[in-house]
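Our platform keeps sequence and structure together, in a single record for each protein. Because each token names a local backbone shape, the row as a whole describes the fold. One such record is reproduced below, unchanged from the form in which we store it:
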Amino acid sequence: MPTAHDATPPDIASSHQEGHRQRLRERARNAGLAALPDYELLELYLFRTLPRGDVKPLAKALIARFGTLPGVLGAPERELTQCPGLGQATAADLKLVHEFAVRSTRAEAMRRPVISSWSALMSYVRVTLAEERREQFRVIFLDRKNQLMCDELMGQGTVDQAPVYPREILRRALELSSSSIILVHNHPSGDPTPSQADITITREIIDAARPLKITVHDHLVVGRHGVASFKALGLI
């Protein structure tokens, strides 16, 4: 059993941790951030919000719990604060990084017509929805030039379903003078494969939109394992 004499003195432990931080910063500068594994990238960020102490165990624990670095950033704030050693301020800082990512990808998707910059749209919906724990049904409204006007949450529910009202979606499209829309929802299970219920509601929306001359370009189902496109699957 260790004795009091076996314990590392606080000043030595602090010096070791500071040395580790400095070595990691130097490696990031010399090799570039892209060369760091996810847990070290997260560790490097945590240095800023937790200026003292060993944050490597926390970084590894977060990735182990949420699966990936995007999973950490996309996790609900209340779940982040359940991790030992991570308080409200640090959780808020992590959510801030996630919001930066959402807004950056949305700005890129809005730069050009959506149909000609499909990869930017796919990046946006993945960053926005892939790690959501509850199902959301969103609608991307496009103008006559197929540029993104806005992305709005039209329904939010449980882990496996969200209420969808075709009438409300089309009423909003008319309010915005949107001539076409893209339906988007997530599967918290991670599997983006469309369900029969997804197919049925999509057909209902398409049928209701046709007399109003509103085009449904696609329906995207987002999961941690990818994005499924109804159009690519021949379902539209």
